[in-house]
Design goal:
68% of the residues lie in helices and 0% in strands. It is mainly alpha-helical. The chain is elongated, with a radius of gyration of 16 Å.
């Protein structure tokens, strides 16, 4: 039972970075801390010349591709729950960096609301990582299922947003 739970949770946690185009730490503020949007705390804030939608997609996909590779490098080679939990915790700074990088791109107006929503969802995903790590360490199948369900719901919405925007590397599986 513990082996199955650990494998499921590890796969879930590692999929967060790849499938969601997201990184995430808690509510780290995401970087430059702009307040130009009235959306949730996760907002994009254009700091330089605004990118076109195609330029933004190209740069966002590159960020997601790097984050996916970094997350895959953390995949544990052991089924020891403590090793897996440590790997999951190692995802938190990667997710934070990816989210900050995406926010710093400054989304064009035509996709800004979708990007802001995605950044907020990514923050929610980040909040799940410590729960997942703890569930793995404790071989807590119920907590694992709850975290997986919450993560799956966020993933589904993030995938839909990525598809709406036109992202290739971000979203999907």
């Amino acid at each position: 039972m513990g082996r199955k739970v650990s494998a499921v949770l590890c796969a879930f946690a590692l999929s967060l970075g790849a499938a969601a185009c997201g990184d995430d730490d808690s509510d780290d503020g995401g970087g430059s801390g702009g307040g130009t949007s009235t959306a949730a705390p996760a907002t994009t804030e254009p700091e330089t010349a605004t990118l076109t939608k195609d330029e933004w997609i190209q740069q966002a996909d590159a960020i997601c591709e790097r984050a996916e590779a970094d997350a895959e490098a953390l995949e544990p080679q052991s089924e020891d729950p403590k090793v897996i939990a440590e790997a999951i915790r190692g995802l938190e700074p990667l997710f934070a960096k990816q989210r900050e990088d995406l926010a710093a791109l400054g989304a064009p107006d035509e996709i800004k609301s979708q990007v802001d929503e995605a950044l907020g969802l990514l923050e929610q995903q980040a909040a799940i990582l410590p729960q997942v790590a703890t569930a793995v360490e404790n071989n807590d199948e119920q907590a694992a299922q709850q975290a997986s369900q919450a993560g799956d719901q966020l993933d589904d919405r993030l995938d839909a947003i990525a598809k709406e925007i036109g992202l290739q590397e971000c979203g999907g599986e």
